[in-house]
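B., you asked whether I could sanity-check this one before it goes into the benchmark set. Here's the sequence:
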Amino acid sequence: MRRRWIITGVGLGALLAFLLWNSFPLISGYGAKVMCSAVFVAGRDPANVAQQDLGHFPFSLGRFVVDRKDSSVTGTVWGLASSKAIYRRGLGATLVNGLTERQLRRQVPDAWLPSAPVLDLDTMDWPQGDRIRDTAWPDPASPSGPSRLNLDKFLDRIFADGNGTRAVIVVYNDHIIGERYAPGFDQHTLLAGWSMTKGITNALLGILVRDSLLDIQEPASIAAWKGDQRRSIAIADLMHMRSGLRWWEFYALPDACSRMLFEEKDMGNFAARSDLRHSPGQVFNYSSGTANILSTIMRGKIDGSYYYKWPYEQLFYRIGMYHTVIEPDAGGTFVGSSYCYATARDWARFGLLYLHDGVWMGCRILPEGWVRFTREGDRYGALWWLNNGRWPHVAADAFACEGYEGQHIWVIPSRKLVVVRLALQRDKLDVDNVLRWLM
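And here's what the prediction gave me:
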């Protein structure tokens, strides 16, 4: 019996050592990327990032060194598995995977980069600008507006100890009626959306449809799929996470998603190599990989010299998102699953676009019927989450973008509400119990 326990213990120890060893490049890559974006995109203090964002296991095993001279971060684990992320103006942070640093820095000419218009947002009313008027509070007699008492209760609950909330904005009837930040964060801090970026990808796909550059019912144009059954996967299947592709996404190192995000040069191509497990359109399987396959498809629709300006000029700048950055992988394709940074107010503006059926200040950005299509499904629509019983005390028409570590945009049309919550959360938020105060 004792011998059996010894053998079992040795086996488990060997398995743990194997998993840790294979996780080292992911730990160093994750930490280098997170630190690089936080410091050079969001302007945060490295010591604060190391303590708050990277101070928990397994990332606490890593060491992440910031080099301000060349705008980079190098990550290692016990001196091994070195990974480097570099910051490039207009592009954000990118891990140096599959290319030399020199190649990566010379990849995109300055002339191809977006240039935000020069505006004094403090003199422009929300939502086009940042000036907030106190007169925007809803009529107390309104049946759909939250009371000030309930709004305060909502804010207190969502900022309760242990929730890790960093920023919250409540927009009612197009006006900000509630806004609060944790110490060290404010309205100018860009924060990671993680999988809320999939909502951005939805909007960009809609713009391609609007411009007659894409038909989502057609099969995805992936060259590697032409010779097998994957050729029947439609773009709509990818958007609804029903591609049938084999994918493992548990955010536990090392899984397919972690390998894609922190080790691969071309994330969409990596995901497209997945084999077919189910018939397309039949089985739901949440996959960041399919979002990056969609990004690859979108890149093929836009001229190379315009690609890096395209999301800014066609989406972000048109709806006042002047403090938003979407980052590419080392292959130059935007990471449509995960890598968008924006201020809380910009995330709220994005939610407003969907509250108003894709129309911004009278101008249609998304094609007619696109938001309706986005909301078709059971608990998951087209790159957006749906209520349909998930939150029993929240209006049934609520739909949401959600991201790793507690990022949320809730859009609730029947209540004229958009609620943004950005966080660094370890435990799952009780969304139903928190949002009910606004109903």
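One thing to flag: The domain at 111-214+301-439 is CATH 3.40.710.10 (Beta-lactamase). Otherwise nothing jumped out at me.
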